[in-house]
Design goal:
mainly alpha, 12 helices, globular
Amino acid sequence: MSAGLFGLLDDVAVLARLAAASIDDIGAAAGKATAKAAGVVIDDTAVTPQYVQGLAAERELPIIKKIAIGSLRNKLLFILPVALLLSQFAPWALTPILMIGATYLCYEGAEKVWGWLRGHDSHAVPKAAVGGDPEKFMVTGAIRTDFILSAEIMVIALNEVASQAFWPRLIILVVVALVITAAVYGVVAGIVKMDDIGLHLAQRSSRFAQKIGRALVAGMPKLLSALSVIGTIAMLWVGGHILLLGTDTLGWHTLYEFVHHGEEAVRGAVAGIGAVLAWLVNTAASAVIGLVVGAVAVAVMHVLPFRKKAAAAH
């Protein structure tokens, strides 16, 4: 009987070691998948602060919290189940769906550029929304834009763990969703509250702290404005890059090969920094593609009847 007990304990120990190894593998895969999605994470971080510009300081963190919860809901309740089902039963559908989302990103970015050219913010809260709940309008817009970025993040992560079995794949993607959401909105919260930190430092007795505090207070509006520009460029870049890769995946290789040849020519022509310049070529080409597609989408949307009614409400 004692031999049986020791045998059982030995089996339990073996299972425990296997479970620990699986956890290590899942952790490593989640880290790799998160790193692969880092580019879109940066874009998401740059896009979000524009939605709290001009709001009362005491409402910034509550609104960011609402957006973060909406982002997590996007990832876990909508994107993750659909992505897993499609990857399991209809993997061919992922690329067209991503390209539709990319077109929306291009539209958002191009509309922002159009607003700059016309001398006003195309993302300003419309009068109709001001009469109702402007915060809800801003949060809804932010979550809608986040949905596309979150979908890209989750699909990139899914692609990295496609060889995993279903349950490890599910766990990895849940970990990626939690880590990325916490990282993005933690950084965003820090950015938008930096001026309050600066004000607190400016009131300290230390001259050094006062100097740092005044610099933070003076610099934050410029940083937020810069992030608005970066966020717009990021939307065009990410959207254009998804479309560039998508057209190649669907069988139209001309555009991708043209950009790829340009990358390779730059990579081989300049020693030392060729890889960086090649990346810049791809990024610039993706942004141009995004701007062109977005401009077409803006032109189409501005001639549609319901779009004219929405514009009249501003």
